[in-house]
């Protein structure tokens, strides 16, 4: 597992959102703290099982590492990206398996789990449901006030899912 060190400290008044971007080769994760409508980076990284492993062992490793991340970060909610409509049915099926073990990890930890379509995540983070990965990564760095300006990748995608959830929570709170 590759991680970035925590850049914010957790406070009891924060809601911690763990975003996950499922992938069989690289499952990205990103945790943010939401307080007073502002998002702050807590942690980010990638779960990358060995490429030579058979699928069932990759799934076991992803599940175990996601559980360890949940235990370490103690999020309040798990936000997961839905499987996109892949041209290749096998790719969609494998991603569905990975997403399943991530959902299982969240359920085992007793977390509420929210799922978002890729277009919804892009829309919430960039303002366009058809944004490119580089645009999403750039806007993630802007939303979180990060020094780097948008390195595309699985961790950035996971942070985008977490930010999407934060925006949806803020919208729901405003409606109430």
What features would you describe in this structure?
The protein has 176 residues and is of the alpha/beta class. It has one domain: Ribonuclease H-like superfamily/Ribonuclease H (Nucleotidyltransferase, domain 5). The chain contains five helices and six strands, in the order ββββαβαβααα. Strands 1-4-3-2-5-6 form a six-stranded mixed β-sheet. Helix 4 packs across helix 5. The mean pLDDT is 89.
Please render the helix and strand layout as text:
Blueprint: E1 2-4, E2 15-21, E3 27-35, E4 38-47, H1 55-73, E5 77-81, H2 89-108, E6 113-116, H3 118-126, H4 133-143, H5 154-175
Parallel strand pairs: 2-5, 5-6
Antiparallel strand pairs: 1-4, 2-3, 3-4
Helix pairs in contact: 1-2, 3-5, 4-5
Helix content, binned percent: 40-55%
Strand fraction: 15-25%
Architecture per CATH nomenclature, i.e. the level-2 architecture: 2-Layer Sandwich
CATH topology title: Nucleotidyltransferase, domain 5
What is the name of the CATH superfamily?
Ribonuclease H-like superfamily/Ribonuclease H
Q: Per the principal axes of the C-alpha atoms, what is the gross shape?
A: globular
DSSP E strands, number: 6
How many domain regions?
1
| Amino-to-carboxy terminus distance | 40 Å
Please provide a brief summary of the model:
This protein has a single domain, classed as 2-Layer Sandwich (Nucleotidyltransferase, domain 5), CATH 3.30.420. It contains 5 helices and 6 strands, in the order ββββαβαβααα. β3 and β4 form a beta hairpin.
């Amino acid at each position: 597992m590759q991680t970035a060190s925590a850049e914010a400290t957790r406070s009891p008044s924060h809601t911690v959102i763990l975003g996950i971007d499922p992938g069989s080769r690289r499952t990205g994760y990103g945790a943010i703290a939401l307080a007073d409508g502002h998002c702050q980076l807590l942690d980010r990284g990638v779960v990358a099982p060995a490429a030579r492993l058979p699928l069932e062992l990759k799934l076991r490793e992803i599940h175990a590492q996601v559980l360890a991340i949940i235990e370490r970060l103690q999020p309040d909610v798990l936000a997961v990206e839905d499987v996109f409509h892949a041209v290749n049915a096998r790719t969609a099926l494998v991603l569905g398996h990975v997403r399943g073990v991530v959902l299982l990890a969240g359920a085992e930890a007793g977390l509420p789990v929210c799922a978002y379509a890729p277009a919804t995540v892009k829309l919430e983070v960039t303002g366009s449901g058809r944004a490119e990965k580089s645009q999403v990564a750039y806007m993630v760095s802007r939303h979180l006030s990060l020094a780097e300006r948008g390195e595309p990748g699985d961790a950035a995608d996971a942070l985008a899912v977490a930010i999407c959830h934060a925006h949806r929570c803020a919208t729901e709170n405003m409606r109430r």
